[in-house]
Design goal:
By secondary structure, the chain is of the alpha/beta class. It has ten helices and nine strands. α1 packs parallel to α2. The mean pLDDT is about 90.
């Protein structure tokens, strides 16, 4: 049987997008796939929308988690990971959606590689708040872990929504988010820690099927309005740790 793959959907105030998001996860053509949705104390009708979908389809897990850290998905993702049984997992934004062959493309990339891939990223395809496609995909490239390390000191060169993790990394305690100190920049902090522990985030410039919605209500925009520049903070911290 094919390796099991888990799609985690943390949801906070995404009532206009969550049904399409979860449906796209459920409609994957990869046979061995589980979907876990965790609502993060949404103040809108997101939870009710997903509950109605669960009554119709009944083939995914739904739970809730308290919302403690602003602009972060730590609480719902960690709740989901306690239940996840896939060998690999990814985190799907509640306002985004996937092409039906996304997981198949992900697993094909992993299984066809000559390297042991524990973590990788691929390209994002932008859509606006109405679902219309924008020109150009976003991807990053680097040649090895040293170039990745140096690149991270300049900017986040990881397309966070597309990242796929081996569950082994989580079981080893290497995948964890410090949202208490970094809020929504906890993903950036995670990548520094992974690289520091010798984990290479393999770059794949191909678009595998991830549609990324860019709009003012998302956490990324909220982080940009914060008085603290968390990216700059992380870069300085790791320059000191790495003597760069």
């Amino acid at each position: 049987m094919n390796e099991k793959f888990t799609i985690i959907v943390p949801c906070f105030n995404a009532e206009n997008y969550i049904e399409k998001c979860v449906s796209s996860a459920l409609d994957q053509d990869y046979e061995n796939c589980e979907v876990i949705v965790v609502d993060n104390d949404s103040g809108d009708d997101s939870l009710e929308v997903v509950e109605e979908l669960l009554e119709k389809r009944q083939n995914f897990i739904l739970d809730t988690a308290p919302n403690i850290y602003p602009f972060s998905w730590t609480e719902p993702v960690e709740k989901a990971l306690e239940m996840a049984s896939g060998e690999y997992f990814t985190i799907l934004g509640a306002d985004d959606y996937l092409a039906s062959d996304y997981v198949s493309n992900v697993m094909k990339f992993i299984n066809n590689s000559k390297e042991d891939i524990q973590c990788f990223q691929s390209a994002l395809r932008f859509i606006d708040k109405d679902g219309d496609h924008q020109e150009g995909d976003l991807s990053h490239t680097y040649e090895d872990i040293d170039e990745l390390k140096n690149s991270l000191l300049e900017k986040c060169v990881v397309t966070t929504p597309s990242v796929v993790f081996s569950k082994k990394l989580y079981n080893q305690g290497l995948v964890k988010w410090d949202s208490e100190n970094y809020l929504g920049a906890a993903d950036y902090a995670l990548y520094f820690n992974l690289v520091d522990n010798g984990v290479y985030i393999h770059p794949n410039q191909d678009w595998l099927g991830y549609h990324y919605r860019w709009h003012e209500g998302q956490a990324t925009w909220g982080m940009q309005r914060q008085p603290v520049n968390f990216d700059f903070m992380l870069q300085n911290e790791w320059r000191q740790k790495w003597n760069k």
